[in-house]
Design brief:
Layout: H1 11-16, H2 23-36, E1 39-46, E2 49-56, E3 58-59, E4 65-71, H3 75-82, E5 85-91, E6 105-115, H4 121-131, H5 136-140, E7 144-158, E8 162-166
Length: about 170
């Protein structure tokens, strides 16, 4: 892990956000949220400007990787090729519009990699098609690029301010 991948927290944050839950409880909460939400927000950057995009994704059960695709002609593709550092946001706000304290959110930091035909493209295409059958034609378009998101860490927020960190 590169030093710049570490989050910037002050001592007070660390003292006030020590998890009393076990790693498996945190992983279970993350897995549940990832499984329940078919879409997330991808945050990228380019020329000093942040960008966000809504994406459909698939994931591995060990929570180490997420996958998504985008047209090669898109800004998202260009930004990811220029800088592989990105983050994802997954949340449950649509499930609890009247109860903010029940909303959970994940910020996931990591690095992306454009997969080529020599890589795990067919396996990933199958994963994406199983989770998002309506994207079958898009996933198999010749001009569609598949990306792997290698997770560095998860930040799980519940009850609006309880933060737990998880590194798969």
């Amino acid at each position: 892990m590169h030093a710049s991948d570490n989050p910037v927290f002050d001592v007070e944050f660390i003292k006030n956000n020590k998890s009393h839950d076990s790693w498996s409880e945190t992983a279970d909460a993350i897995l549940r949220l990832v499984n329940d939400q078919p879409f997330c927000v991808l945050a990228t950057q380019g020329q000093g400007q942040p960008y966000t995009s809504l994406i459909a994704f698939a994931y591995t059960e060990d929570l180490k990787r997420l996958y998504f695709c985008t047209p090669e002609a898109s800004r998202k593709f260009r930004l990811l090729k220029a800088c592989n550092r990105a983050s994802l946001l997954i949340d449950s706000r649509c499930q609890h519009p009247e109860h903010i304290m029940e909303v959970e959110a994940l910020t996931i930091t990591g690095r992306t990699r454009h997969l080529t035909q020599d890589d795990e493209c067919e396996t990933v295409a199958t994963m994406l098609n199983e989770r998002h059958p309506y994207l079958h034609a898009f996933v198999h378009e010749e001009s569609t690029a598949i990306f792997r998101f290698e997770v560095i860490r998860y930040f799980h927020v519940s009850r609006f301010q309880e933060v737990r960190q998880f590194i798969p």
